[in-house]
Amino acid sequence: MSTAPAPWLSLLVPVYNVAEWLPACLDSIGSQDLRGVELLLLDDCATDASPALAQDWLQRHPELDARLLRHERNQGLSAARNHLLEAARGDYVWFLDSDDVLTPGAIASLRRTLDRQPVDLVLCDFAYLRAQPKLKHRLRGEQHVRTFAGPSNAPLTDTPGLLTGLLELGYLHSWSKVARRSLWSDDLRFPVGRTFEDMASTPDLAMRARSHIHVPEVWIGYRQRAGSILAGASLNKTDDMMRALHDLPQRLHPYSESEAGVRFAASHFAARSFIGAVRFASRQSDAERMGHYCQAFLAALCMPLDDLMAQYLRRGWWWRALRLRHWLSRSAATPRPG
């Protein structure tokens, strides 16, 4: 039996049909300080050269604690992440999509952060990676996207503040969160067969964290490309997005009842999701779906609709209030009284 110490970090990378981008992802990992880091790749039955590229890369780096796992049949991203979680041995786990990259020094910065304050959950920032970035992308601040609307560089034990800071900005990606593996107990997994799996799991993960810290550094390069899971909209995907809001007030209990900041942030997050979904359904002329999305949104609200509108106006968010009213009207819904 091996007496080697358990890794302090497991880096978990699902792989599926990303041959064009996988080498950059793996090279970005290989450039990090990987002492005490376990790298797990999982081939989800890719039909391109991705598995061969991954195997070749691992053979050229025999010094690493790294393995390539395989599914016998394609099961999707959620199942791949769940499998990787079950195989991980690290004290912390960090998901990385196989078309994205780690920025130079990201793991070393994470290690320094945890050496100073061994919190349960670490939040980082990201940058968009585009083949041809334009001026409008730079003006939007895509070179450094902040994922948390709250204090940075200080360990906190404020769960309501964590939920508020995450939901207000809406960046719930798993790859911008590094969590103690123990938070991912058997009753918390990604929903198999669905997209927007991060929306469905990240709030529950956050509520399990007794401590957290936001590090305002770009640790992830998030690639924008045609053919990615979220690049091509579809009604099935918008169904999944709205399904991820199911029982949101109950899932956020008791904070959804006792904390005004959580109520607003969660309701605002639900509104943004609803507008995105109903706009797409409108372009498909699917009035029935528009109505379903409206009802799902109203059920996901953590505060009366009129109070949400009042909060928008109080903050000077007139355009957001007008957009929400417009799409509620377009979906032919009658808002329930608050």
TrEMBL record:
Q: Which Gene3D superfamilies match?
A: Spore Coat Polysaccharide Biosynthesis Protein SpsA, Chain A (3.90.550.10)
The record ties this protein, via InterPro entries, to: Glyco_trans_2-like, Nucleotide-diphossugar_trans
E.C. no: 2.4.-.-
Q: Say yes or no: keyword Glycosyltransferase present.
A: yes
Pinpoint the Glycosyltransferase 2-like domain residues.
10-141
Listed Pfam families: Glycos_transf_2
Q: Which domain of life is it from?
A: Bacteria
Task: Give the molecular function GO annotations.
Answer: glycosyltransferase activity
* Keyword field: Glycosyltransferase, Transferase
Enzyme superclass (EC): transferase
Q: Which PANTHER family match?
A: GLYCOSYLTRANSFERASE, UDP-GLCNAC:BETAGAL BETA-1,3-N-ACETYLGLUCOSAMINYLTRANSFERASE-LIKE PROTEIN 1
Which named protein is this? Glycosyltransferase family 2 protein
Q: Which organism is it from?
A: Roseateles subflavus
